[in-house]
Amino acid sequence: MRRLRPRTLRGRLTLGLVVLLTVIFAGVGLATAALLRTFLVDRLDQQLVAAGPHYAESLEHGQAENPLSDTRGQALGTFGARSADGMVTQSGVIARASGNGTSLVKLSAADSRALLALPPDGSAHTVRLSALGAYRLRAVAGDDGDTLVTGLPFEHVEDTVRDLAMTELALFGGAVVVAAVGGGAWVRLALRPLDRVATTAERVSTLSLASGEVALDVRVPDADRHDEVGRVGASLNRMLGHVENALARRQAVERRLRDFAADAGHELRTPLASVRGHAELALRRGADPHHALTRIDAEARRMSRIVDDLLLLARLDAGRPLESVDVDLTLLVLNAVDDAQAADHGDGDAAASDPLHAWRLDLPTDPVVVPGDPHRLAQAVANLVTNARVHTPAGTRVTVGIALRGDSARLTVEDTGPGLAPELAERVFDRFTRGDPTRSRASGSTGLGLAITQAIAEAHGGRVAVASAPGRTVFVLVLPITPRSAAGTAPPASGDGSSGT
Ligand SMILES: Nc1ncnc2c1ncn2[C@@H]1O[C@H](COP(=O)(O)OP(=O)(O)OP(=O)(O)O)[C@@H](O)[C@H]1O
Ligand SMILES: [Mg+2]
């Protein structure tokens, strides 16, 4: 049975159509044949009643061989018989239309038995007579104790019903064949878009998406149709779009990871090379060991800083939970600016009359408190403030502000320096990205500061962004605030770091 089930959807739909039509046609055929038969039998019975027992009565008066029966007004083929005392005494059939048209009928024993068995109550019965075929017979009681049987041929009814059945069979059979061929073609046409969806899905399934560059540019055509197939196609296309995005992102992550490892190696190689160089120098006879050791110490510190930064990034990447206490952001800003000012003075010529940077604060009166890790957040803020000091020339004005926006705090560090080149601004949060690699490496910058700030912001559910143009560069650090922050339950900010212009 299983073998007979078509394997394709098209086959199943066509078969379903054919089976359905066959069932409907069979029902219609049987019902019409039954109705027609009932109608014809009813009419025959009416004719039988209308004819009455006259013909059978008239047989009684004639002789058996040449009955002078009365055939007037009787239909051709009318059968008559008379029985008395359990015997059929006369029987005849009207074989000709004119004159005495009666022919004698030879009845077999079975015929006689069937005739005698008819109840004489005027009801009609179908009986098959051996000489005449099927007849509709009706028996009534005669005047003198005999029984009069009248019959009309039944074969008309059977022939007509058979004709109808044959006609219907031919018509319905033809219709089913046409439906099978036409329906099959139509279903094939209607399912063609689905075929294309299936082809696309098969093509995608053969692509190896595990690694390397993947061009996932296959798409289902006619996904703009407004039917089910269109919806499936559109969904598949959307899904392919998502997969393509995910693959592109995965590739980018893979590339970044590779670059990161290479960059980290490269960054550590430079100080290591100078450590080795200075060590060799120190070992030479006559060299100044003090100078070499000072350089080695400086390079070792630099390496520890890089390693610490890398470890911190790795920890943040791993998504380990951070400490979460109430952190007063205002206080962090005050401390960071304070430190920057001190560093400014340390860098500069103490005798110079004008300050190196002009520092300004733009803070709300109430402390702004965010949930988080105080050390990490301090580091994030310090990185932004330090950048504004280190990467801008003397005389630059730096404004550090905090504003509450909805349920987040926005910390901005704005400077009037030359800003970042657009291509640098795009990837300034990537690891080891520096404005001028050679010069800034010499000045001790690693290009990890903003990457760390971004990782810290994201670990706190926040983000960091930059907008830069010559004369105005703004770094924004957005952090979600605690509901309590506005209530001022945090320890009050000490005002020692505040600064005038
Ligand atoms: N306020 C700014 N104005 C101009 N350029 C900036 C500013 N802030 C950052 N940059 C540029 O972005 C680069 C990346 O900054 P980032 O803090 O990530 O690294 P870095 O400061 O060079 O090194 P590190 O912070 O690790 O010591 C800097 O090298 C600098 O060129
Ligand atoms: Mg920096």
Automatic annotation (TrEMBL):
Keyword terms: Kinase, Membrane, Phosphoprotein, Transferase, Transmembrane, Transmembrane helix, Two-component regulatory system
Record-level Gene Ontology MF annotations: kinase activity
Subcellular locations according to the entry: Cell membrane
Domain Histidine kinase as annotated: residue spans: 263-483
Organism domain of life: Bacteria
A Pfam family matched in the record: HAMP
Domain HAMP: 188-248
Coarse class of the protein's main subcellular location: membrane
Catalytic reactions on record: ATP + protein L-histidine = ADP + protein N-phospho-L-histidine
Keyword Acyltransferase: no
UniProt-listed SMART domains: HAMP (SM00304), HATPase_c (SM00387), HisKA (SM00388)
EC number in record: 2.7.13.3
Name assigned to this protein: histidine kinase
Organism listed in the record: Catenulispora subtropica
Upper lineage: Bacteria, Bacillati, Actinomycetota, Actinomycetes, Catenulisporales
